[in-house]
Amino acid sequence: MSLAKAVAKAPHLANWTLPPWLKLAINEIGQTEVAGAKSNPRILEYRRMAGLTQFGEMDDGKVPWCAIFINAMLAESGVKTSGTAMARSFVRHPDFIRLEKPMVGCITVISSSRGPASGHVFFYTAENGLMNQGLGGNQNDSVSVEMFQKAKLVGHFWPRAVPLLAAPFDQPVRLARPLLPHERKAVRDA
To answer: Cβ distance 71 to 81 under 8 Å?
Structure first.
């Protein structure tokens, strides 16, 4: 998918400095799970890319793959990963630093309704007051750009070995428009 198509939900990305893993992730938008026992070969490939092959050929609908996707994009851009398929693995991993405020492309972890140890992870792209916008995998069973409640925020993280983006790209991006009705609906995150 081209950057032009990807920015339909995030038009500011067209003129923004993007970290390499976010550029790769944009190209994956639209990859979707296959219904039933079959799997999308590209989603299975994310496991190999991330070095998380213990899931083998298991149905892509049965393995939560948000962290697998994030790790795959990091690995493909030459950045050390968290090494696990757990969304919260970035929170205490020594190779990732916690940011005081988000910037485009940072790794954002949120809590989920499945319990305190579970969560969801995506690349931050913007915010609009109540919601964070993020590009990630396993968002409504696909790679997509979606909105998530800021109240669920666990933290924003950046790979320790990668320099932070230079100003003004090191700042949060505030979307100019108000929430639309469909953005208020919770997104299924696994």
So the answer is: yes
3-state helix vs strand vs coil in the chain, percent to 5? 25, 25, 45
How many of the other CB atoms lie within 10 Å of CB of 98? 14
Separation between Cα atoms, residue 162 and residue 150, nearest integer Å: 25
3-state secondary structure of 21: helix
pLDDT in tens, 38-89: 899 999 999 999 999 888 788 888 889 999 999 999 999 999 999 999 999 9
166-178 pLDDT per residue, tens: 999 999 999 865 5
Find, among 83, 65, 66, the residue nearest to 75 by Cα.
83
Would you tell me which CATH number, out of the four given (1.10.260.40, 3.40.50.10490, 3.90.1720.10, 2.60.40.1880), belongs to the domain 3-173?
A: 3.90.1720.10
Distance (Å, rounded) from C-alpha 77 to C-alpha 73?
A: 6
